[in-house]
Amino acid sequence: MKKALEKYIIPLLAIIGIVFLDQWTKHLTLLYVKGTNGFYIIDKVLRIYFVRNEGMAWGMLQNKQVLFIILTPIVLAALTYFYYKLPFEKKFIIARICLICLCGGAIGNLIDRIFNGEKLFHGYVVDMIYVEIINFPVFNVADSFITVGFALMIFSMIFVYKEKDFDLLFGKKKTGEKIEEKSEEPAEETQE
Q1: Which region, left, alpha or beta, applies to residue 63 given φ > 0 means left and ψ of -120 to 50 means alpha?
Q2: Fewer CB atoms near the end CB (10 Å): N or C, the chain?
Q3: Domain residue ranges in the chain
């Protein structure tokens, strides 16, 4: 039971929690902020207001919802594959957290693209968080989890994991197999 909890139930509940938080904040934005000028949480620093995003980050690829709807399940399948390909050891907890954040964020934005439009599969992503002090593009909770997941992944790839750890993902090494280390000393020759 502990193994099932660790492998399936906890990650699934975490992803559901991310999606719920994302969709709840978007629902509140549509209910209370859409059609207004928004409001400041911190004056001239952090503002909440409604933005209809029909593209991806920084407004790129506008009106390409169908492309995102096709690509997102492919990305989710790859993330799920990597999640279960990693050994279930403490060492890989950071990698698992990254993959859970990425999956939750991707699903949250996918739901918007499918259902937040006049027609099914022609929706838009609801963005609402604006960090005015640095003029950062408006984003949402799903984007936050995606960004944290990527940042944590890059950090861990540089500072935590070694190349041999990622060989597991790409079939160069099997779980439990040890990599032989080459000796710096030349082998002794025997004389006959």
Answers
A1: left
A2: C
A3: 2-167
